[in-house]
UniProtKB/TrEMBL annotation:
Pfam families, alphabetized: ABC_tran (PF00005)
Its job: Involved in beta-(1-->2)glucan export. Transmembrane domains (TMD) form a pore in the inner membrane and the ATP-binding domain (NBD) is responsible for energy generation.
Family under the similarity heading: Belongs to the ABC transporter superfamily.
Keywords: ATP-binding, Nucleotide-binding, Transport
Regions crossing the membrane: none
Lineage: Bacteria, Pseudomonadati, Pseudomonadota, Alphaproteobacteria, Hyphomicrobiales
GO MF term (any one): ATP hydrolysis activity
SMART domains assigned: AAA
InterPro entries the record matches: AAA+_ATPase, ABC_transporter-like_ATP-bd, ABC_transporter-like_CS, ABC_transporter_ATP-bind, P-loop_NTPase
Domain (ABC transporter): residue spans on this chain: 5-230
Protein's recorded name: ABC transporter ATP-binding protein
Amino acid sequence: MKPAIHVASLRKTFKGRDGATHTVLKNLDLEVGVGEFLCILGPSGCGKSTLLNVLAGLDKVYEGRASVSSGRIGYLFQEPRLLPWLTAEGNLDFALASCRVPTERWDQLKSRYLAMTGLSDYRTYYPHQISGGMAQRLALVRALCVEPGILLMDEPFSGLDEITARRIRTDLLTIWEETRKTIVFVTHNAYEACFLADRILVMSGGAFQQEMPVPIARPRSYDDSAVFELSRDVIKAFGDGMGREPAPVAVPKPHSNLVDDLDRHTAARMNL
């Protein structure tokens, strides 16, 4: 089967103010299967967002090849980027009209994804009337309503508190398991990557340093010790890729309570 995304010898450079040439992406090769959930893990400035911009067609100045073959692309950013003068439903209508989705399908698509994210009762609310977590869920609904074959996600939950982010990650997996859209999810959170992904690529300095499959059965539990143990291995791989040892991670207690769970999940997140 033809991959949803194919990247070959992708290289991107730019000139700095000093006139020197800086390489952002270094001869990347990548294939993402149809319906795969891929996470790209790396520090700020390693080229993750630049790669997504190339895949989305927002950045067309590069060497090599980057192609997608699964129809329309949805893009979810770090911020919701909602139009403040439109209601929640108005923001969805704007996206549907812009992408020329047939109007007879609008109600079905909006109702489906609003229900899946718990936002059915907030259609008439403006962005300033809902919480940050709800705004990001609405941005996810907007991306899904236009029926993308591929969904690109650039650290979409990094600005949320951990409890809210945890709920939205669970919502995202529920939606993905039902729709099986191809997802490329960029993050610097090892635990998040292990919970969500089929496969993780560790990225540093504009290059993929290591590929790590996620052998944890689905559906997954956020409190599964296997997710935590794998996140420790991923953090070590990340640290090795950076040429340094990562900060130590506390081993979870066998019978932890909710506070302990939150503490260790936050610890895993903060190690990156």
